[in-house]
């Protein structure tokens, strides 16, 4: 089975790659940095391929999709793990806020570009989605940027897309679930200043990337359901605003040219 893991060169993604490679799956690791990606695949066990690409821009996502198409006749599992928690507002070359681009638009576009190859998709989301607002008039450009809420907005967008992709793919038998991996000690959200210092201290008490990988791997290898959200291993019913979900979808489609 071929499993593609975005952002697989470090943190939870790396631990996911390691677990899957040890289990005998063919792993394709997507990394934005060639050297860091190559360093990761050198030490990973088993059959691991590297695809290099930056998921910040639509052009970067398209390059990744093309390369995946070239080397994978089928992708049994696509794990959208790459994620960003920025401390300040940065716009991408496409004019959208960076974490909105990587956390939400990149998975949205990859899902469309690869859908005929897919068996299953696992979206690494975050429990913080519940604090998000996903206002289509403001979120894409990161207007009113907030160091916590903006990230939460992007993760809410992931969750809003779940039932829509689940329905879209029903007949094709492609499934999609999302998971909050737990509070995990990785480089996510690292920053300077007093907040960075506090975070560094707090992270000592957080779980390891291997522990964060566990629920992601479990979902990657399971194929019983679709459209579900898991808080670690527990399924949480999600109440979604259908109308908002459709607007967020339409906007992602207009921005990326997919859908
Ligand atoms: N660490 C936690 O407590 C926690 C909690 C909830 C959700 N998550 C989610 O788990 C996922 C993995 O995060 P992590 O904690 O391992 O953090 P991390 O920072 O260690 O890993 C993030 C990965 O995403 C990659 N990435 C970022 N921007 C990219 C881009 N433009 N193109 C390609 N790759 C890019 C990074 O290179 C890295 O490999 C993220 O989606 C994150 O939001 C983490």
From TrEMBL:
Key word Oxidoreductase present: yes
Keywords carried by this UniProt record: Oxidoreductase
Keyword NADP attached: no
Pfam families: adh_short
Record-linked InterPro entries: NAD(P)-bd_dom_sf, SDR_fam
GO molecular function: oxidoreductase activity
Family listed: Belongs to the short-chain dehydrogenases/reductases (SDR) family.
Name the UniProt record assigns to this protein: Short-chain dehydrogenase
Lineage: Bacteria, Bacillati, Actinomycetota, Actinomycetes, Streptosporangiales
């Amino acid at each position: 089975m071929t499993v593609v893991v975005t952002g697989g060169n470090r943190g939870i993604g790396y631990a996911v790659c390691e677990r899957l490679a040890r289990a005998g799956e063919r792993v394709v690791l997507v990394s934005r940095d060639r050297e860091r990606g190559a360093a990761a695949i050198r030490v990973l066990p088993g059959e691991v391929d590297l695809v290099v690409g930056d998921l910040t821009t639509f052009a970067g996502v398209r390059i990744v999709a093309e390369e995946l198409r070239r080397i994978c006749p089928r992708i049994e599992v696509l794990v959208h793990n790459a994620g960003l928690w920025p401390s300040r507002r940065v716009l991408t070359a496409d004019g959208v806020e960076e974490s909105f681009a990587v956390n939400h638009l990149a998975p949205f576009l990859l899902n469309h570009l690869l859908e005929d190859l897919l068996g299953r998709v696992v979206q690494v989301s975050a429990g913080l989605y519940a604090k998000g607002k996903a206002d289509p008039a403001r979120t894409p450009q990161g207007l009113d940027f907030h160091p916590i809420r903006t990230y939460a907005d992007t993760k809410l967008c992931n969750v809003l897309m779940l039932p829509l992709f689940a329905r879209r793919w029903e007949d094709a038998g492609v499934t999609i679930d999302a998971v909050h991996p737990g509070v995990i000690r990785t480089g996510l959200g690292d920053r300077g200043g007093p907040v960075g210092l506090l975070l560094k201290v707090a992270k000592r008490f957080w779980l390891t990337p291997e522990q964060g990988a566990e629920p992601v791997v479990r979902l990657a290898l399971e194929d019983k359901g679709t459209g579900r959200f898991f808080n670690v291993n527990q399924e949480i019913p999600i109440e979604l605003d259908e109308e908002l979900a459709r607007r967020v979808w339409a906007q992602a489609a207009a921005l990326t040219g997919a859908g």
